[in-house]
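Dock pyridoxal-5'-phosphate; give full complex structure.
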Amino acid sequence: MTKNILSMVRENIRSLKPYSSARHEFKGKASIFLDANENPFGSPIGEFNRYPDPLQWQLKFELARIKGVPAENIFIGNGSDEVIDLVYRIFCDPSKDNVIVCPPTYGMYEVSGHINDVAVKKIKLTKDYQLNTAQILEAADENTKLLFICSPNNPTGNSMKRADILELLQKFNGIVVIDEAYINYSQEKTFIAELLNFSNLIVMQTLSKAWGLAALRLGICFASLDIIDLFNKVKPPYNINQSSQELGLKALQNVNLVNDWIKTSIRERELLKNELLRFSFVVRVNESDANFLLVKCEDADSLYNYLTAQEIVVRNRSKEPGCENCLRITVGTAEDNQTLIKILNQYDGK
Ligand SMILES: *Cc1c(COP(=O)(O)O)cnc(C)c1O
């Protein structure tokens, strides 16, 4: 199935003539670079005086190898947040278009909508935190440009049913953004392979979680050549700085280490879940395909304050729709988790 993606793009973006940087315009071999007003002497701290590769090809080739996707189908953003913002700016006309999000979910989809003056329709997940496909399709109108699906979902932890996502990919007449920030911890398959079947699909991943590179700000997105082309036109010319490119590339040589961490996190997640379920104040622990657990307790605020006093920070999600009295707890190292359990034992004894 192919949908005409270009017809969904904002008029001004469709006709945009992008900025052409010095690094873009000259592609040949040269020994003297006098084209970009860079400092010819160097930098005080290493080789940072030249502008970085605007399209981060080395990093993309390495990601392509690991993910089994052509490098041309990859876009790298300054964190996933940049990818989310770009999707809005490419497809949504401010104060005219709208998008659909499915709370409880990642807050940036909505905030980015408000920043871009795009209306955000909220179709809540079902009681068991699954997509409400019928309501989503009913809520979509001719100005609904984007549908954000987070799977595994933050903060609930569970994956969305594959059949539901596939149905939405077929029936939703707009761009479907699937955020797979936690896919490395999941039993479910990535939707990257579905890019060949759905031209309206954008898959987001990140190096911030399983890869341990949150500080470098490397968000990844996989999409059709048409969509990647739009991203490249709209992004700031040098959106990924040189040190992030270099360090990201270096980190990607360590697949085995990362895979070991993932296995450990999954094992620790299941251990922590079982331990938590033994406490009288824990009502429920949602099944998780991610590196955190959503824990429903008798009094989330009280537990949150208790943990904070013991210098343990978790995320209080109890104000989120469908998350009353829920704390989101990241799975730590075995030692972190044991300390948490010890401190929770004391809380239970009170
Ligand atoms: C952590 C997280 C991200 C990652 O964001 P970055 O900007 O790449 O660090 C993206 N989506 C969700 C749902 C997340 O929880």
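Observed: Residues 255-277 form the longest helix (23 residues).
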